[in-house]
What we know:
The chain is mainly alpha-helical.
Amino acid sequence: MESLSVSKTLVEQAYQVILDAICDGTLKPGERLTQDDVAKRLNVSRQPITNAFLMLKAQGFVREAGRRGVAVAPVDPKLFEAIYQFRSAVDPLAVTLAVPRLTDAAIARGRALIAHGKEMAERNDGKALLQADVDFHSLIYELSDNALILETMRLNWQHLRRAMGEVLRVPDLSRKIWQEHAAILEAMIRGDAEEAAKLMRDHVVMAYQRVAPALASDEKTRLPTNR
């Protein structure tokens, strides 16, 4: 974590820096963060850190851990299951709404994202793959022109980032994911909203099936053993 600039409010910057560190695994579940330590590392006063902690706590990314401190919350398999259940309905809806709003510029942007994602899959660049995945789905949410979908999924994707990193590093799997993205986009370009929505729902269901074993494994390692 580095010193902050003044282009956004200090609270917004502190929140985003801490959130990114949690979501990309730099800050591990259970790791304790104090206001004093984080403020020193980010070169700000404690006040922005206090407010950032409050936001992160409300969203389930950190928990109380004593005076002036919090701890990174563990990944919650139940939350991820709920998000994917929600996505299985919302993502196909977003695709359906997006199809009639496709422009030449949006199509070009979508194809560029597909090409970039496939390139990152070949490079096996986990961090870049995760961002590319977020960018592809975010494009569809934006094209849906539904503010509720966009804002709701923006937060949910922050939670999803925590579990998907390791999955996306598997080369054959990451290639498959981008083949699915490409098929969804091409169906949208053809104007076949029904097929695009079906492909998206299948993609989301498969995504959960890919992530769920990793979540279950992480949960098992956190459970105390009986003696």
